[in-house]
Amino acid sequence: MFYFLVFSLNLLVIFTTHVSVNGLDNGLARTPPMGWMTWAKFGCHVDCVKEPNGCISDKLIRSMASVMVTEGYLDAGYEYVNIDDCWSEMERDPVTQALIPNATRFPDGMENLSSFVHSLGLRFGIYGDIGTKTCEGYPGFWIGNGSASDYFLLDTETFASWGVDSIKVDGCYQDIDLFDRIYPRFGQALNFTGRPILYSCSWPAYQVYVQREPDYASIAKSCNLWRNYNDIELSFESVLSIIEFFAQNQADFVRYQSPGAWFDPDMIIVGNEELTLGQARVQMAIWSILSAPLLMSNDLRTIKPEFKQLLLNRKVIAVDQDPMGIMGERVFNASDLQIWVKPIEPVVKGKPSFAVALVNTGVADTFSFKLSDILTGKDSATSYSIDDLFGDEPLNSPIELSSNLTLKVGGKGDARMVKLIPRDGLFFETLTNNDLS
Ligand SMILES: *[C@@H]1O[C@H](CO)[C@@H](O)[C@H](O)[C@H]1NC(C)=O
Ligand SMILES: *[C@@H]1O[C@H](CO)[C@@H](O)[C@H](O)[C@H]1NC(C)=O
Ligand SMILES: *[C@@H]1O[C@H](CO)[C@@H](O)[C@H](O)[C@H]1NC(C)=O
Ligand SMILES: *[C@@H]1O[C@H](CO)[C@@H](O)[C@H](O)[C@H]1NC(C)=O
Ligand SMILES: *[C@@H]1O[C@H](CO)[C@@H](O)[C@H](O)[C@H]1NC(C)=O
Ligand SMILES: *[C@@H]1O[C@H](CO)[C@@H](O)[C@H](O)[C@H]1NC(C)=O
């Protein structure tokens, strides 16, 4: 059924100023980090007899790292290979108290695995917990029992000696009242190692869960990225609920994000059978609009070609990795359609380009709206050329600010994404000698 929907966009105009807060100064994550992580797909699978190719092990990390290089993911920007929970032994080393990897599943140790990952040109990431135990019950960084002491210096030294490049620090088995003090303290311990280590904090996620207002200004000074909502699950409902959470808080969040300091809506689950290709486009579109980390959790060894192609889409990745690092916003929300807009480069004569994403949640397959309506309050030009980012079809170009943009979106649970580049002044300029020299 072809159903043409026209609507008027006057209901939602949000004015936000982008106040750049200084993020963590360790030189890392100037654009949102990209890579791969075990959790959403492989969880805490530790039975290597039952799942020889899917248990958290040296073998899993090596095989995934190899595929990331041979199949072009590294070339596209995915550089971190991250092990989540369930990698360590159940007890620390009785003599040194250091964390030790499970000897059966990581027989050559973490330094050896990390060297292998580095030899491929990738970076190596690991996981831990600011409490007495990780969420799955493995040893945490905190001693506890009223002693208020911790293993932060010992553990960060251990990670640095293994050549760890990134760490996700969870918040299970810890008193939430302590988070505002101990997450920065762990960050200092990381800094003391002298090794630049990307710091991912679950700090605000636990606070949001108990309806406590996170101190994002402090979080952005201590962490390179931070989770502040529920774990993503392998379902489109989960993707949509995360999108809704970010949309509802965008006016607040947009102020705290800057190069080096990113909100993390959690892993990219594209390529798992639970998402259709259209639903996968929705996740890629909105994560890119948010300038979110792109940390895939899937099986790259068996992924279908169309999902691989989506994950490797350079135009969409460029939106995510835009150097300005702005968190885009939802400018229209109805039961059948969401429209998201993000200012990106190139900036032409002072006017930014825009990435525009349409998320279809209804029955129509074509939407038409006045361009000026979705760019209200933004620094807009009078005329744009259009590029189709998922590469579906050629678009009529250019378009005036005062005219309608009409886009087909592939049905319910699909997304369309275009880039608008200002044309103002581009066509009547004469080249000067300076331009030519
Ligand atoms: C290491 O992992 C295996 C499962 O692969 C488990 O049987 C064993 O108990 C673990 N060892 C320790 C010391 O945690
Ligand atoms: C890793 O371990 C393997 C097997 O024990 C060994 O052959 C190799 O030399 C080690 N590599 C490094 C970099 O230590
Ligand atoms: C804390 O104390 C309890 C009771 O004495 C003990 O069972 C537990 O192992 C201690 N935990 C740690 C992390 O030392
Ligand atoms: C440690 O912090 C200082 C001050 O913010 C920063 O200049 C330096 O790059 C940091 N070093 C590492 C290894 O993170
Ligand atoms: C956006 O629209 C959906 C569907 O109508 C609705 O459930 C949701 O509450 C809306 N969100 C906001 C912030 O208005
Ligand atoms: C253009 O979009 C507006 C709503 O923004 C709508 O009222 C109008 O009918 C549309 N015009 C066409 C030709 O689709």
Automatic annotation (TrEMBL):
UniProt keyword Cell membrane present: no
EC id: 3.2.1.-
Gene3D superfamilies per the UniProt record, alphabetical: Aldolase class I (3.20.20.70), Golgi alpha-mannosidase II (2.60.40.1180)
Enzyme class: hydrolase
InterPro entries: Aldolase_TIM, GH, Glyco_hydro_27, Glyco_hydro_27/36_CS, Glyco_hydro_b
Signal peptide range: 1-23
Database matches in Pfam families: Melibiase_2
MF terms (GO), sorted A to Z: alpha-galactosidase activity
GO CC terms in record: cytoplasm
PROSITE patterns: ALPHA_GALACTOSIDASE
Single Gene Ontology BP annotation: glycoside catabolic process
Keywords assigned by UniProt, alphabetized: Disulfide bond, Glycosidase, Hydrolase, Signal
SUPFAM superfamilies assigned to the protein according to its UniProt record, in alphabetical order: (Trans)glycosidases, Glycosyl hydrolase domain
Subunit relationships: Homodimer.
PANTHER family listed in its UniProt record: ALPHA-GALACTOSIDASE, ALPHA-GALACTOSIDASE/ALPHA-N-ACETYLGALACTOSAMINIDASE
Family statement drawn from the similarity comment of this UniProt entry: Belongs to the glycosyl hydrolase 27 family.
Designated name of the protein: Alpha-galactosidase
Species per Swiss-Prot/TrEMBL record: Tetranychus urticae (Two-spotted spider mite)
